[in-house]
Amino acid sequence: MSTLYHYPFCPHSRFVRLALGEYGALVDLVEERFWDRREEFLIMNPAGTTPVFVDQAGPPVPGPAIIAEYLDETRGLLLAERRLLAEDPAERVEIRRLTSWFNDKFYAEVAEPLVSEKIYRRVMPKEAGGGPPDTTVMRAARSNIRYHLAYMTWLVSSRDWLACDRMTYADLAAAAQLSVVDYLGEVPWNENEAVKHWYAKMKSRPSFRPLLAETALGVPASEHYADLDF
């Protein structure tokens, strides 16, 4: 069986888990506390970041972008309309652009600051960066999310999905990033009805159910987190 080394509230891990779920791939999940810098994990990925995918006897595949391309090459090509990359070259560019937008830009400006301050720092040892949250960092992330949600509103108002007329990696990346922020109750849904409607479609998918069942020790989920109808 294939193995995914992940951390439950790592948005990049969630992106890959959603992709594996959409492709119907059976995978053994191994929780990796990446801040421990475990030697065996660093051998697989010297960067020390999650996720890392090991496909049966194959070599370790590190990072969300590389794993997404690997899954497309090994599974997506056989799945026609269920493929998470389009056939059209222009659409593939747009899917990759938006996937990068959410996995890189949204992550750096919104998801990573919030999940680090409110979840990771609670469980990390002090020498690894643990401690009380930095409210200045969280305020900046709360401001940044409005810019991203405004952009998403424009996207879903002009397209059926984020990148084109069907669900793709771009939607999974955005939903994975938003999911951890939503768990923390940090998404101003009342200001973004179009994005709220799109996200409701995403979290209603079977691949999303395992994410909605997870909880962080000492950090309760927002009241509507697991409610498919908000």
Give a structural overview.
The chain is 51% helix and 7% strand. It has two domains: 2-82, Glutaredoxin (3-Layer(aba) Sandwich), CATH 3.40.30.10; 89-212, Up-down Bundle (Glutathione S-transferase Yfyf (Class Pi), Chain A, domain 2). α1 runs parallel beside α3, α4 runs antiparallel to α5 and α5 (135-158) packs across α7 (193-203). It has 230 residues and is α+β, with helices and mostly antiparallel strands. β1, α1 and β2 (27-31) form a beta-alpha-beta unit.
Record keyword descriptors for this entry.
single chain, 230 residues, alpha+beta, Glutaredoxin, Glutathione S-transferase Yfyf (Class Pi), Chain A, domain 2, four-stranded mixed beta sheet, 8 helices, Glutathione-S-Trfase_C-like, glutathione transferase activity, GST_C
Report a brief summary of the structure.
The chain is built from eight helices and four strands, in the order βαβαββαααααα. With 230 residues, the chain is α+β, with helices and mostly antiparallel strands. It folds into two domains: 81 residues, Glutaredoxin (3-Layer(aba) Sandwich); 124 residues, Glutathione S-transferase Yfyf (Class Pi), Chain A, domain 2.
